[in-house]
Write a structure and sequence with these properties.
This protein is mostly helical. It folds into two domains: 53 residues, Arc Repressor Mutant, subunit A (Orthogonal Bundle), CATH 1.10.10; 110 residues, no CATH class. 80% of the residues lie in helices and 0% in strands. Helix 4 runs parallel beside helix 6, helix 5 packs across helix 9 and helix 9 packs across helix 10. The N and C termini lie far apart (60 Å).
Length: 186
């Protein structure tokens, strides 16, 4: 019984991994359940049984990735901006291009919109926590502007412009973002 449960879970993880690969390397509209089944090396019915629909598979994969990232940030102290930024830069180096490909579709795909809003909400909360002492002295309007500015400069779009468009090294990209953040919170 235990080995059957383990096998079922391995198959589920394989399908979610395949879904994540498909959704992050192709446009949402171009991904089919058959593509996911083929990549996971399982039958179409297995994918349907696990995910029910393309939207639910996307959501399950996105939630899995989101909670994995949240789990990995738990070890970063709330007041250590440098460690938090280095974590983000490592994340963007591995997933930044794929994240932007997904986010570019949020206006057309409701499931992606939900995922994007969840990410922005978590990012906002993290910034409010990380810079709570600097933000606490501000009125609400100034605080909101600074939080949104911090979200913008530390987000994947800024990373993309600095790293991919202008060709800065990872270290120079990190330094540029650090300098912008320091300017905003000063």
């Amino acid at each position: 019984m235990n080995s059957r449960a383990e096998s079922t879970e391995r198959t589920r993880q394989s399908v979610l991994d395949a879904a994540a690969e498909c959704f992050t390397t192709s446009a949402y509209d171009c991904v089919s359940l058959k593509d996911i089944a083929k990549l996971a090396k399982v039958g179409l019915q297995t994918v349907v049984r696990i995910g029910e629909s393309k939207e639910k598979l996307f959501t399950a994969g996105a939630e899995r990735a989101f909670f994995s990232i949240i789990e990995r940030t738990k070890d970063i102290p709330d007041d250590d901006f440098v460690e938090g930024l280095e974590f983000l830069m490592d994340l963007y180096e591995s997933w930044g291009d794929r994240m932007l490909r997904i986010l570019s579709q949020e206006d057309r795909i409701p499931a992606i919109k939900v995922f994007a809003e969840l990410n922005r909400s978590a990012q906002k909360h993290r910034i409010e926590t990380l810079f709570s002492s600097q933000l606490s002295r501000l009125n609400e309007v100034d605080k909101e502007r600074k939080v949104i500015s911090l979200m913008s400069v530390s987000g994947s779009h800024s990373w993309h412009v600095l790293r991919r468009v202008h060709g800065l090294s990872k270290e120079q990209t990190t330094l540029a973002i650090k300098e912008m953040v320091e300017k905003i919170i000063s």
